[in-house]
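Quick check before the chapter quiz. The format below is the same one you will see on the exam, so make sure you can read both the input and the output lines.
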Amino acid sequence: MKLYMHAAACSLSPHIVCRELGLDIELVQVDRQTHRTSDGKDYLAINGNGYVPALMLDDGKVLTEGPAIVQFLADSVSQGSAMLPEVGNLKRNEVQSYLNFITAELHKPMVLLFNPLYSSVHEQIRALISKRLARLDGRLAGPYLTGEAFTVADAYLFVCLNWSPWTGIDLQQWPGLHGFMAHVAARPKVREALQAEELEAFDADGVYFAPQAYLASAGRTGSPVRP
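Here is the expected output.
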């Protein structure tokens, strides 16, 4: 399988899931400006939307949209039930509910904070996100969203919250979410994924990660992630 990705983008979520499940995956970088892939293909011919992630299966079929991809990955192996309970188990629907919440209420609004075209309403967007995060902080059932088990929704949430320093959102005001980031960042397979994407920790707690180019543009310095 091939995972089309950008470093530190939402494609990091299925990347983490693949490593947690022990799935063999080939990472293919996509250039944001040219839409050319690191293996010389036109990414728009693979995913006409132009954004990542996309998962190409061994038979050439392509699956897009991160929440759908991580569910497919979890369902593709027997051990995947640890990250996404089986059909008929209410816990599965709980994880799916979180996936929908993250994609609609956190991922898309946070992306707008990177876009200068929306700068006039960034404060209002930030206020909406903060309201959602406060609610989420109060609903944590344990170290992870649904309790003790690390699920596909946790991988997705980790990636979105990892953008917080770059969007002017301070997670320190929500101790549960800040602790969540620390728990996920400490997972060996998560650190393998971070290292593979050449991401560096740049905060004192070591729970936020970014590519070197972003670190340089923000005047920050980081240290290499080690598994």
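If your answer matched, good. The chain has nine helices and seven strands.
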